[in-house]
Amino acid sequence: xxxxxxxxxxxxxxxxxxxxxxxxxxxxxxxxxxxxxxxxxxxxxxxxxxxxxxxxxxxxxxxxxxxxxxxxxxxxxxxxxxxxxxxxxxxxxxxxxxxxxxxxxxxxxxxxxxxxxxxxxxxxxxxxxxxxxxxxxxxxxxxxxxxxxxxxxxxxxxxxxxxxxxxxxxxxxxxxxxxxxxxxxxxxxxxxxxxxxxxxxxxxxxxxxxxxxxxxxxxxxxxxxxxxxxxxxxxxxxxxxxxxxxxxxxxxxxx
Length: 255
Known about the structure:
Elements: H1 6-10, H2 15-18, H3 27-37, E1 45-49, H4 55-62, E2 66-71, H5 74-86, E3 92-95, E4 107-112, H6 124-137, E5 138-149, H7 153-156, H8 159-164, E6 173-180, E7 185-193, E8 199-207, H9 211-220, E9 225-230, E10 248-254
Parallel strand pairs: 1-2, 1-4, 2-3, 4-5
Antiparallel strand pairs: 5-10, 6-7, 7-8, 9-10
């Protein structure tokens, strides 16, 4: 049996607490941006990769879109199903590994927000497999909207200071131990309380990407129009040119 990875341990029993984290509070504004990018076309079939507790899936479904949510965590999906049921919504919320999706030429658009799988994998090859599988799931003419960690940020700023800003009691804490310039991976210790009140501490590492890498990876998968912007929580905008001040980048790719 393979060793459980940190992202599997983190999301084992962390559905309700996850919804209270600061970084999950921008759902409405983010969905406003997605709707605009999709020209408010409610006939489109959307896949939400790494949907977590379903916040974007559910909000877009409320607005009349057909959305399929997939995630690796059964705990996160259970929370999403509870929320969907409470909102009287029938949504496909499926357990799948984003590195091995069963879909092909099925969706008109994909979203993958708030580090939904990518870039959490333990190797660059696994992260690329996620992009490959999302690309395979999309129809020939499709749009792919996602966020990822901006590799320019830790070259100029302290990751620890960023995570310390605005921290609230009860939220997870994140302590960077070192940023590896050879791999662009930030190694950190994440401490959080699960839904049963158990405090857990995990050794994690996350891959930061620079814009030229993302552009090359997407071009290799057939995307021809790639826009990269700064990703501001709950206020995505193409007007926000990516800078070294942005912790995350927002990517809008089209075939």
